[in-house]
Amino acid sequence: MTRPDWIDSMHAMEIIAHRGASHEAPENTPGAFKLAWEQGADAAECDVHLSRDGQVMVIHDATTGRTTGRRGVVAGRTAAGLARLDAGSWKARRWRGECIPTLAQVLDTVPAGKRLFIEIKSGPETVAPLVPVVRHSPLGTRGAVIIGFDLRVMALAKRTMPRVPVYWGLESIPAGVGRRAWPLTTKEIIRLARAARLDGVDVDSRGPIDGRFVRELRGAGLEVFVWTVNSARVARRLARAGVAGITTDRPGWLRKALRD
User: Fold this and answer.
1) What is the tally of structural domains in the chain?
2) 40-51 as b/e, with b when 16 or more CB fall inside 10 Å?
3) Helix, strand or coil for residue 110?
4) Is the pTM of this model over 0.70?
5) For residue 49, which of 42, 74, 218, 257 is within the disulfide window of CB 3.0 to 4.6 Å?
6) Does residue 185 contact residue 229 with C-beta atoms inside 8 Å?
């Protein structure tokens, strides 16, 4: 019996740990990334902001309150001050003492053959400090991917680091009862991404992702990644559509569910 093509696509689809293995561990902490690699994630995703002293820090929000219980703005604290905050206790007592790491510290954890998707949450000022951190990491440019929703920042990142894959983040919008759509047509997405010389897109799993959408982008030389997928049913549908990878909070669980 011939094996369906979508099964091969499912095995080829990259499973990316969203902020590390963030279902079990506190997001964007060393413990979350360590657990992601232990669970067999193909890659991990993190978010970055700049500290007051210009260090690239791994944290999702522009403020520290949600994950540390200490009010403050990331850009208003030094890297050392941010590192002293407890970013783990909010998740569970056993994670007490997990810190807000620098990007360099997280890149140091990436095993050979794996990648770190780095989402720029702030503006273009983040790009220049990012370059030496990526280049001097153990895997260099081979271990890094840049993602973000600001097309201008993504274009700058690609011009600055032409060897690093750069993907443009897109979020779907409501389009009637129970429906969602992209804010641009597929042709417009392709035109803008190609004009910026990007390598692909990283799109919202709630949006209209089907085989035609993926084929059109791939035909234009653009890869399609999807965020955030915590359902085996949705993951299988996306594999059938031919996406290159999916971001999930539960990399170990999802990989096992896809094998079953």
Assistant:
1) 1
2) ebbbbbbbbbbb
3) coil
4) yes
5) 74
6) no
